Each structure stands twice: as structure tokens, then as C-alpha cells.
Amino acid sequence: METIYHTVIVFIAGYLFLRMTGKKAVSQMHTFDLLYIFILTNIISSPVEVDQLGKALIYALITVILYKVLIRLSLHNKLRWILYESPTVLIHNGDIDRKGLKKVRMPMNELLSHLRVKGFTDIQSIAIAVMEQTGNISVIPKSEYRPVQPNDLNLHVKKAYIPIPLIMDGQIVYHNLKYLQLDIGWLEDELEKRGKKIANITLATFLEDGNLFIDSYEEKNHKSDPYYYKPGRDN
To answer: Integer distance in angstroms from the first to the last C-alpha of the chain?
Structure first.
């Protein structure tokens, strides 16, 4: 029973400490970000095997505070260059930077693979490719190879609208309804008009024109229509 109690406390404490740290994906983490996660994980997991719950939580809290201090210090430009690695140029003006590749220990086939993922097959179309501090590779094409923008054609486009989810996986998103100043009655009326039930809806979003888009679990029988072919054996 005591082991279960310790495990629950450690899990909750670890969750709270990571929430204090802030949101950051693993691919966005720097060296000391990963070091912090490793240290914190070891500290908070030790009470599961050894009866040192109080000490472990104090050590974990100190680790979190030190990490937060480092993050704050990294906001200053002079210290930032000490705490973080500098970006490394891999391609410049269509030419591969061999020193840069050697510095990051990246073979040519891996570089080409990263470029393909970004949608580039010809290095001559690239103005600059850089390995950022997080390990991600950013690629900027030459001006003549970049996608045409509305600005290039002197076109005025309307403001982008993001459809607002009102139902997700059969559950109502109440805070979005409140944000739109709509009530449950309005939503139920819209669903009733279309003969839909909340439990059967994968996603329902509020569109720019005030209509409701609905994607439900219901399977449609398209028989042998080639436009609805799905790879695999699920046809």
C-alpha cells in the first residue's frame, strides 16, 4: 500500500514540476533542457524504491528552481551565447558547407533526407539551410524558388479564419460555446436538423459563415467508387 501511495505522489509531483517548467517539445529542447529532464526524472523516481519521498521532492523542487533561473538568464544576449550552441550553416547560396556538416557530424545522405522532408530536392534552389540550436534544420529557398505570395501579385486576401471546435470525440467543448456566446440549445437544434447525435460526432466546428461542419463516425457505403479507395484491406 505504501508503494502505491509513493508512486501516486511521485507521479503527481512530477506532473506539477513539468507544468512549472513550461511547454516545450523534445525536438525543441537544448542541451541543458534534456539534462534537466534526466536529473528530474531520476530524483522523483527514487522514492518508489527507497523511502526518501520528502528529500526527493525537495531536491526536485531545487532542480526546477535552478532550471527556471537558467532560463531567465538565457534571456540576456551575452549569457545566451554561453548557454546555447550557435546555429550551424549547412548550405549557403546553393553550396554545401562541408565545415558545417563536419561540425554537426552529419553525413551527406542524412542532409539530403532532411531536405526531402522539407520538400527540397535540389540544393541549388536553397539560399540557406541552418541547423538551429534545437537540432532542427530550417531551410530558406532562393527568391525565385519560393512559393508565390498574394503580395507578389498585389492581391488583397481576407483575414484567415480558424474553425472553432464545438464537439470533439463525442464531447461538447463548453468553453468554445461560451466564447461564441452560444448555448447548448442552439447546438442541439443544429444537430437535430441534421439527424445527428452528439455521441456519434468525431468533430463539429463553427464555420466563418455561422454554419456547423460535422464529421461523424457513421460509415458511408461508397461501394466500388474509385475516388473513395483506401489503401490496405479495409475496403
So the answer is: 50
Residue 127 DSSP code:
E
Alpha-carbon distance of 118 to 131, in angstroms, equals 13
Grid cell 525565385 in the structure block, residue:
144
CA–CA distance, 199 with 206 (Å, rounded to integer): 18
Mean pLDDT per 10-residue interval, the chain, length 235 residues: 65 71 61 74 68 75 81 73 80 94 91 93 95 87 90 89 94 95 93 90 94 78 70 68
CA distance 167 to 201: 7
Report d(CA 10, CA 6) in Å as an integer: 6
Q: Give the span between the Cα atoms of 136 and 51, in whole angstroms.
A: 41
Q: What is the pTM of this model?
A: 0.60
Using N-to-C axis directions, what is the helix angle for 2-21 and 31-45, rounded to 10°? 160
CB 36 within 8 A of CB 60: no
Helix (H, G, I), strand (E, B) or coil at 192: helix
Supply φ then ψ for residue 163, to 5 degrees: -55, 135
